[in-house]
Amino acid sequence: MTIRLDRLDEFERRIADAVRTRDARMREELAAMVAIPTGFNHTPGLDALRDLLADRLSGIGGVLERIPGVPRPTWIKIRSGSDDPEAAAVAEDVPPMLVARHAVGDGRDATRLMVCGHLDTVHDPDGPFQELVEAADGIAHGPGAMDMKGGLLVAISALEVLHELGREIDWTVALVPDEETGTYFSEKALLDVAKGHDVGLVLEPALVDGSLVVERMGSGAFMIEAHGRAAHVGRAFAEGRSAVVAIAQAILEISALADPDAGRIVNIGPMHGGQVTNAVAHHARCWGNVRYRDEAARVALDAEIRAVVDRLNASMAEAGDDPPRLEAHTAFIRAAKPATPEVMTLAERARQASEDLGHPMPFASTGGVCDGNVIQQAGVPTIDTLGVRGGGMHRPDEHIQLDSLVERTTLFAILMHRLDRDGFGDRPGSGRSIS
Fold first, then answer.
1. Contact at 8 Å (CB) between 222 and 202?
2. Which of 84, 89, 179, 255 is the most buried (most CB within 10 A)?
3. Partners of 401 in the beta sheet?
4. Is 206 in the same domain as 240?
């Protein structure tokens, strides 16, 4: 897409010029980032990419902190590919979250910007999809090119351009290592870091048409576990208590709690039960994901899932001696992200900047979740699809529209510049000189 300059002031045109000169460099930098595998909690890759970006952030005045993660519940980890799915969960690495803070230190009451992205992807670090490959139609395929290494590069490059032009603003950057698996390691740290900021800006990829997501559902995970009694099918079938039958009943009743039209989604899978067909299964499990439109739906779904388990346990206890027993494990930690008046005001600011550059920016809602949900839960109005354009997200044909690197970096730099210059909400413009 072509960037218009006639609706920009002199300094903003300098931003656009500075970003444009980085085009070839940014493509090379993206290729280097994509070549670092960061899927599946791959510690060497996460460490390498974190260190690479830490160097760049410290180079523009960021004060670095690595905040240790918190281990996630062992039941969260699905071991469907294990030789023994019944085995206890193995210990997993808990990566830190990188935070870089920059304060101008001039005593001005300026807008405090919270910028966030994630280091991880969904792609297998040992799989065949390993590098950025440019195609003839202006796109490039690569693992995480769109989600969200392209977005990380947009954020870092925009901050570097402002710094190089002598435009100092107050910002915090948080780089989450585990967004794709639910931010369980980093949620507490992200909540704590976000508090006190005025604006949240997250570099998730834009929708296909460039739309800005202003509203997201919340998300949670659960696992239902059934304990029965093993028995030989031919010799002692009546002595068995099938955990698979118990889990099947739970699956049917919990699935019936879904009401998409009312903003309640319940999906179950995968599941596991038993080892062989000639033995009554003594243990079974199923995992599920829920989506909810608001806090009331979150609380209700959690309570209703537990109520199903309690009711089935009571029913099985009445039906026979030593029945199977069900347990529910839930973690509905990702709050919904509503389109509050403050969010809409921020979204309008982003849209104005985008339109000034000649690019329409429709608004959209989605059932998907991201770290923007967490930042807004901390009380910070947040918009979260400021990253690059592309397609094939989470697929082996994931790709980026290469011209969106310059387009979105220019937009992001101008948006941050304007939020500092003009203020946001009760925060006035900084009044800092702009040369």
1. no
2. 179
3. 139
4. no
Size of the chain in residues: 435
In angstroms, the Cα distances linking 390 to 72, 144, 155, 208, 413 are 31, 11, 17, 7, 20
Whole-model pTM over 0.90 = yes
Give the other-Cβ count within 10 Å of 108's Cβ. Answer: 14
| Per-residue pLDDT tens digits for 345-372 | 999 999 999 999 999 999 999 999 999 9
DSSP 52-94: HHHHHHHTTTPEEEEEPP-PPPGGGS--TTSS-TTSPPPP---
Same domain, yes or no, for 145 and 46? yes
- Report the CATH number that the domain containing residue 345 is assigned in CATH: 3.40.630.10
Q: Does the structure show a pLDDT above 60 at 254?
A: yes
- H-type alpha helices, 320-402: 341-356, 371-377
Same domain membership, residue 155 and residue 46: yes
pLDDT in tens, 369-415: 999 999 999 999 999 999 999 998 999 999 999 999 999 999 999 99
